[in-house]
Write a structure and sequence with these properties.
By secondary structure, this protein is α/β, with parallel strands linked by helices. The protein is 33% helix and 24% strand. It has a domain at 46-97 and 140-210 and 285-378: D-Amino Acid Oxidase, Chain A, domain 2 (2-Layer Sandwich), CATH 3.30.9. Strands 4, 5, 6, 7, 14, 15, 16, 17 and 18 form a nine-stranded mixed sheet that branches. α1 packs parallel to α8 (214-227) and α4 crosses α11. The radius of gyration is 21 Å and the shape is globular. The protein starts with a strand and ends in a 16-residue tail after the last helix. The structure holds flavin-adenine dinucleotide. Residues 7-12, 29-32, 36-40, 43-46, 48, 237-238, 266-268, 270, 289-291, 328, 374, 376-377, 398, 400-406 line the site of flavin-adenine dinucleotide.
Length: 435
């Protein structure tokens, strides 16, 4: 089959990867001049397979008013005259209950564990390629160095400990660590000058969690895909999909029309706009986040740390022998602009400096910290939208929110299986588009 992949982020490239391996003729259409230049560019780098609980949880709503009032809060809301924004928010509020959050967590864990299996296969296959003397291995700083979520108040830590049993029953291997155990595990938390050190109460450690640079992975996939004959059309904005008799018949772009036998929508936060005229409503809204990529000093964290109170993640990344620290956080409900708000950027630098004062040279210019902002394509419940649509040659792989890197391989394999007419390895309950 000739298949068009609409969008070259991590969702599009991984979908192209499996489809090309399955023998299809694949073409990737992307408005930017390269792959992964939007949300998949400098995300938190966490392959967070066991930490998938959605933002919409039972304890979230009481925290929202103080969050919204504080200038330095991890979540900010900028109201817009946009019914799509308000509808998303109402659905988000409706999902903030224990039953919905538990169900979403269970579904996401199934998808994340499947994705982890596929990532391990991918990495093992790379090892074999090295053994065979092939030089197309993707170096994306992949490491299994574990993740420690640290808590600053006893009540929050106790609640996380209570969740352990539930998570263990679902297959997660996690341990609750005392303050002293956290510091023994990650010496960077022992710095007496650190605000995080002062407020540290305890943490939940997940030794199996991994990190990797999503952008470098995407660049490597592009090279491998080109080697497999996949065509890339960069600088090509998709403007409309034409339909007849329940099928997509033509893809309109600003560089002419494209025909294909099937297409997969992987446009991240932009996904709803293209299919709205077809009568498909995708409840995806951008949650804007920020990151820094710091040159890491010897005293920087060596394992992934999540500061639960401040909602900031710290991931050590290795890039050709150079150690970096990726710092990511903030969730701003603020529309579709990618612009970096200097206030939010300063806030993220301050969080990092206060938590890990010796992790880098904070007197360096902010430019050297590689600031970045991206739009998480978030659904109210936190589940991505995967699978078929009422148009029998249009499939969806979008809405992965804060977990698009973690869930990429599983989601892509599922969509490829559906296109092949095969049964996906996991049940798709909760992932389908509402029609
Ligand atoms: C601050 C931050 C931290 C994060 N941390 C993590 C993390 O640690 N772990 C994790 O798993 N996930 C994380 N995420 C989430 C993850 O980055 C996203 O879920 C993922 O990148 C989404 O990928 P995507 O391919 O769906 O979207 P994108 O990467 O945005 O790709 C969509 C592509 O479609 C293209 N496009 C859009 N419209 C058109 C059009 N009309 N025509 C042609 N092309 C178009 C865009 O240019 C873009 O290249 C984070 C996100 C942010 C913002």
């Amino acid at each position: 089959m000739r298949i068009a992949i609409l969008g070259a982020g991590i969702a599009g490239l991984t979908t192209a990867w499996y489809l090309a391996r399955d023998g299809h003729e694949v073409e990737v259409i992307e408005r930017n001049q390269g792959v992964a230049l939007e949300t998949s560019f400098a995300n938190g780098a966490q392959l967070s397979y066991s930490y998938v609980a959605p933002l919409a949880g039972p304890g979230v709503l009481p925290k929202v008013p103080p969050w919204l009032l504080r200038r330095d809060s991890p979540l900010r809301f900028y109201p817009a005259i946009d019914p799509h924004q308000w509808r998303w928010l109402l659905e988000f509020v409706g999902a903030c209950n224990r039953a919905t959050s538990d169900l979403t967590t269970r579904r996401l864990l199934t998808l994340s564990f499947y994705s982890r299996t596929l990532m391990h296969q991918f990495v093992a296959d790379q090892g074999e390629r090295v053994n065979r003397g092939l030089n197309d291995v993707i170096d994306f700083g992949y490491a299994k160095n574990g993740k420690l979520v640290v808590f600053s108040d006893q009540a929050g830590f106790d609640a996380a400990r209570r969740l352990l049993d539930y998570q263990r029953a679902l297959g997660c291997e996690q341990d609750a660590l005392s303050r002293a155990q956290c510091i023994a595990l990650e010496p960077a938390l022992g710095d007496p000058a650190s605000a995080l050190h002062k407020r540290l109460v305890g943490g939940i450690h997940t030794p199996s969690e991994e990190v990797g640079d999503c952008y470098r992975f995407c660049l490597g996939l592009e090279a491998r895909l080109r080697g497999m004959g996949v065509r890339f059309r960069f600088g090509t904005a998709i403007t409309a999909l034409h339909t007849a008799a329940g099928r997509i018949t033509r893809i309109d772009t600003d560089a002419g029309d494209i025909a294909s036998d099937a297409c997969v929508l992987t446009l991240g936060a932009q996904s709803p706009f293209l299919v709205r005229p077809l009568g498909l409503r995708l409840p995806i809204y951008p949650l804007k986040g920020y990151s820094l990529t710091l040159p890491a000093a010897a005293q920087a964290p060596r394992i992934s740390i999540t500061d639960f109170k401040r909602k900031v993640v710290y991931a050590p990344l290795e890039n050709q022998g150079v150690q970096q620290l990726r710092v990511a956080g903030m969730a701003d409900i603020a529309g579709y602009s990618h612009a970096i708000d200097p206030v939010r950027l300063r806030q993220l630098v301050k969080e990092s400096r206060q938590a890990f004062p010796a992790a880098t040279d904070y007197t360096q210019s902010t430019e050297l910290m590689q600031p970045w902002a991206g739009l998480r394509p978030a659904t109210p419940k936190g589940t991505p939208i995967l699978g078929t649509t009422p148009y029998n040659n249009l499939l969806l792989n979008c809405g992965h929110g804060a977990l698009g890197w973690t869930l990429a391989l599983g989601s892509a394999r599922i969509v490829a299986d559906l296109l092949n007419g095969a049964r996906p390895a996991i049940a798709l309950d909760g992932f389908a588009v509402d029609t």
